[in-house]
User: Fold these one by one.
Assistant:
Number 1:
Amino acid sequence: MSVKVSGLFKIYGVQKAVNGISFEAFPGRVLGFLGPNGAGKSTTMKILTGYLPQTSGNASVCGFDVNTHTLDAKKHIGYLPESNPLYPEMYVKEFLTFVCDIHQIKNIKKRIQEVIQLTGLGPEQHKKIGQLSKGYKQRVGLAQAIIHDPEVLILDEPTSGLDPNQLIEIRKLIKDLGKTKTVILSTHIMQEVEAICDDVIIINKGKIVANDRLETLLQKHHTQNIEPIFVALTKEN
Ligand SMILES: Nc1ncnc2c1ncn2[C@@H]1O[C@H](COP(=O)(O)OP(=O)(O)OP(=O)(O)O)[C@@H](O)[C@H]1O
């Protein structure tokens, strides 16, 4: 497996944002990481990507512990954070060049053209990031996440803000990337899970309440849709 999490906790004050979760994610598969607002998805993703230290437990990416071998782990990860922080004053290509430099990518021009093509940024590639629509900013976020061809992609709500046409294209891109890479994505769109995920984890109040292959989860609950399963497993009592 390329991502392994065991007994992971993140405690803020008295709140257990992540409450002892364990799971694995595998190459060639897209793992949907689902849960209600505040369930602990982004916190888990930030720990996996080395941006936040856990309180206890372990997480590794491609065999590298994210705490003790953070840089090695990060080399293997592409991360699209929920807030998609970008530099609005930079031009798209200027920003992607900057990201290439960080990753010490060779043949920068060729690689930038490839990711512009992959993410459909072509028509907007000459603009400043601050001039882009939300959906195109999201594409820039995806482009920077994949530019170093990482083995693991961690995408926090990658399709938020996309229009229906863009949704289809970006989902296709994620599904294609998932054929060779390990993709973990969070989303609140249940159709998206059905369209692109192979595996599903549902997290509620910091704990995993489901972890299965999508088809197995649907079979177990005698339904064709993930939504009723999500509601049943996460509703407030
Ligand atoms: N820096 C922080 N300090 C204190 N509490 C925090 C901090 N960051 C997150 N939390 C809390 O931890 C819990 C989990 O938050 P997290 O952002 O991981 O949830 P999420 O599942 O990603 O939610 P959403 O679907 O709304 O993005 C929430 O209750 C949140 O308020």
Number 2:
Amino acid sequence: MFELKNITKIFGNEAALRDVSLSISGGMNYIIGASGSGKTTLLRILSAMDTQYEGEAFYHGKNLKELTHQERARLYATELGFIAQGFHLIDELTVRENILVPSYLKSDDPERKLDMLLRKFKIEKLADQKVSTLSGGQKQRVAIARELMKDPQVLIADEPTAALDAKTAREIGELLTTIAKERTVVVVTHDTSLIRGKCSVFELDKGVLCKCKVTDTPSKAINPSKQKKSLSLRSALRMTGVTCKRQAGKLLSLVVATTIAASCLAVNFSGMLSGSSNQAFQELLEKQGNSVMNLMIVSSFMNASGTGQETPDAVQQVSQDISGLLEKYQDDSRVEAIIMDAPMDDMVVTLDGKDFIIESTGQAPVYNKMIAGKISDNSKHEIVLPQILVKKMGCTNEEIIGQKLDFMGSVINWDSGKPVTMPVSFTAVISGVADTSYGMEFEGEVMTFEHEDSLFPSLAIMRDIYEQAGKEDPSFNFIIRPDSPEHYLEIYEELMGAGVVPLGQVELIRDIVGLKGAALAQAGISYTLIAVLSVLAALSVCLLCGLMRKKEYAVYQLSGYAKFDIAVLSAVEYTGVFLLSGFISVVAAWILSIPVWLGLALSLGVSVVCFAETSLISSLVNPLTALKTGGRG
Ligand SMILES: Nc1ncnc2c1ncn2[C@@H]1O[C@H](COP(=O)(O)OP(=O)(O)OP(=O)(O)O)[C@@H](O)[C@H]1O
């Protein structure tokens, strides 16, 4: 069965084994020798845990050094049971759950066999007790029962009685002798009192095989066609159920860390931060009205107007070429609305034969926002009226919209260099009603004014009026309403660059954008910090859980789980973590009014990263170092 040829194992300058050759055919086999003589080293080679040595070791003719990962997993799952000094049990699990660990890789029903083993090893009353609460002898029985669950051909035991009292040691010894009647048992021991009956004994002295008593006991092939299964989803779910029950604390901390990380990242990536930093801007709009967002494009204006220095000398008429700008900006996606300015005086509107004089304020146009209907269609004779005028006419917004009204007034023609007042008139359909109020803050009080002469005709009406007034200048004054303060400044700079001075509250908007940027940066830094810390916390918790479960992963490996099987197990566990943290993230997203998909996507991302981290840890676990297999660990 085992054939070892000229095995030499060197640690540093010291040889733990020197030119050891032996063969094990079946039955009971003892490897004995003083402490440090190389027993455990030999046992690790026999069990294919250590493949770094000189010489060759064969199991049923197969060179143990040449085993692939899959072959090794099959060997551990079906043929080789290994009982180590530290018992290699998963402390959080019960006796029953520990014994069942190898059974998840098999297709046969484990329950009958489990009951039989529990009875045989007299541990049926302990079945639902956590193994951490058991005595050394009880743990050893559980460890042997678990290995027998594989129905192995060979059972290898490292100092199985080392930590036991004499009576329990004898019982365990007898148990192993009974097992050796059916299978090959290899026991490493100091305790020569265990050696009884028909057996082979190999004695090591300072790494050299000094004595050898071989009793030829041919090995009985136990179900040699046994095949290892991959861990099925059903088994992985059952194992995850057990893990959740027994290691709820670890999994819960993972879920919490994942949820916090995902929620903080979601808050960071969502528009929530910019939403909160927009608050100052919204407050300004509420106080002063939306008209602070207007950019007036005019073909002529008085310089120094509004500066407080309007002395006759300082004030000058400035003319600028605004032709083509209306066409340029009317389809611009940054522009919320374009409103035409009607520079008319002495306006009268006629409704049902009754004339209403429109009072001139000299401050028009003021456009705050649309409150009913829509902005006039530039290709039609449509007009937007101020709400204050509609009220003056005794109508509701709904009543006035769609009505066709007659308008009269005058336009000043400056084409000759002198102002010539020209009478104009037109008929227009009312397309909408606008709020034309604006607020002014005075000693902490906000006063609101409304303009009834802020009418907004379509381009078609403007063309008509200018034709009636005989104006040659084709440029019409209009208002650009950008959709955000950032776009306001962008368009402003664009116009200035093109040599056109737009009129508006540029400095105020600049301050707002500056403030918003600073608030955003500040909030962004803190949320990024929280998010990074949360991701780090999630990864650390996951790393910690992975490291804490190293022993468990090593036990799985020695129970025959391939790396893929452990990855399937982790995938199922992290799917659970994702579902739970995803659910909490969805609730958090709903409460925080951030997009649900973002919380879900980030929970998924964090879970996938944690899964990758755990899979990496489990695949790097080496049972040799993760488990105590002998004096040096
Ligand atoms: N990982 C290691 N690194 C360095 N030296 C080691 C290592 N493992 C074992 N050795 C050395 O190899 C020699 C044999 O050790 P081994 O553990 O095989 O002896 P042993 O007979 O099992 O001893 P014990 O009965 O005390 O467990 C010892 O000198 C030991 O110090």
